[in-house]
Specification:
It is built from eight helices and no strands. By secondary structure, it is an all-alpha fold. It has a domain of 86 residues. α1 crosses α2. It is rod-shaped. It starts with 9 loop residues before the first helix and ends in a 6-residue tail after the last helix.
Length: 126
């Protein structure tokens, strides 16, 4: 039976050629590309859980996590996006430690950590 590979679906391949499906599945799971993508996604999830431990609300961070995974962001891009989110959300930044607020300030303004600590010292933590 001739099958047009351009229109072949996974379900069709599984039904018509389970042996070929299994071989392809095994090949994909053992590929370096798959392993790297899995590591990237796990690193994003770990990063997000670290942010939970910093007191950032789930409603703020989970949408960013999903976007990072689906759009192929690096961890550096994720950190930039989380920091931007936090700087724009007073409720989130108030739950951070003074050092975390200073690091966010430092990333935003490119100053020294000492200057960032001074600039954020007056911010009241609720």
């Amino acid at each position: 039976m001739e099958v047009d590979l351009r229109t072949l679906t996974v379900d069709q391949l599984l039904k018509e050629r389970p042996d070929l499906f299994k071989a392809l599945q095994t090949e994909v799971l053992q590929s370096e590309t798959f392993k790297k993508e899995r590591q990237r996604i796990l690193a994003i999830v770990k990063s997000v859980h670290h942010n939970f431990s910093r007191g950032i609300e789930k409603e703020l961070i989970v949408p960013i996590e999903m976007k990072a995974i689906s759009e192929g962001w690096s961890l550096d891009r994720l950190e930039i996006e989380v920091n931007a989110l936090l700087l724009g959300s007073a409720g989130a930044t108030n739950k951070l430690s003074h050092l975390d607020r200073a690091k966010l300030y430092q990333n935003k303004y490119g100053c020294s950590i000492t200057d960032a600590l001074r600039a954020t010292a007056g911010q009241i933590k609720s």
